[in-house]
Design a protein that fits this description.
The chain is of the alpha+beta class. It has seven helices and seven strands. Helices cover 36% and strands 14% of the residues.
């Protein structure tokens, strides 16, 4: 379990710019947030610091009943890739968490893509392909598969191809809808058939331009 931010760190997170996530603090304070994965230092001058998706989630999370101020972190967010034995429960809290993570990802794109584009994946997504594709699908409302593949739903898996993931969905119409969602999120997606099993799947990779 991730150690929760200190009270001082929570105050910095809460004081971040509501639109951009820009942070203000001493170099030591900002460096501590970077080490915890809650902030990143922009590569271009003036090298300001901004909240990461994890930092945005902490700021936007709702306090528990009877708990004043921002809540303590209880671990990092993880998009559902499908097929998990245990998964977070569906409901309004999960919807808020996914929506916040996706908005944080768009902000990360804006701040780290050289031209500030939000319509294509950023470096973090290219180094976390399965999680990034799963977040795009879950944020768009697609249903992840449960532990039993017969229940249906998407599953995102690694492949041997560089910068590519496979997306499985037993329902053909739902599979095509996943392709549309990924393409709108800045991915290239094509539909293929596995030679031996005849299983249809998507091969998706982040678009570069």
């Amino acid at each position: 379990m991730t150690r929760p931010p200190t009270a001082a760190q929570l105050r910095l997170i809460e004081a971040a710019d509501p639109d951009t996530g820009r942070l203000r603090g001493t170099p030591a304070q900002l460096a501590a947030l970077v080490r915890r994965g809650l902030a990143f230092r922009h590569p271009r001058p003036p090298h300001d610091h901004f909240l990461t998706p994890a930092g945005h989630r902490i700021r936007e999370a709702e306090p528990e009943a009877g708990q004043p101020g921002p809540p303590a972190a209880t671990g990092g967010f993880s998009a559902r890739v499908g097929g998990e034995e245990t998964a977070p429960p569906d409901g309004p809290a999960r919807l808020r968490e996914v929506r916040s993570a996706w908005q944080g990802m768009l902000e990360l794109r804006r701040m780290t893509n050289p031209d500030g584009a939000t319509d294509r994946p950023c470096g973090w997504e290219r180094s976390h392909l399965v999680r990034a594709a799963a977040l795009a699908l879950e944020a768009a409302g697609h249903r992840p598969a449960g532990a039993d593949p017969a229940d249906g739903g998407y599953r995102v898996r690694e492949t041997r191809q560089p910068e590519a993931v496979a997306v499985y969905e037993p329902d053909g119409e739902a599979l095509r809808a996943c392709a549309d969602t990924l393409e709108r999120a800045g991915w290239q997606a094509g539909e293929y058939t596995e030679p031996r099993t005849r299983t249809r799947y998507l091969l998706a990779s982040p678009r570069r331009a």
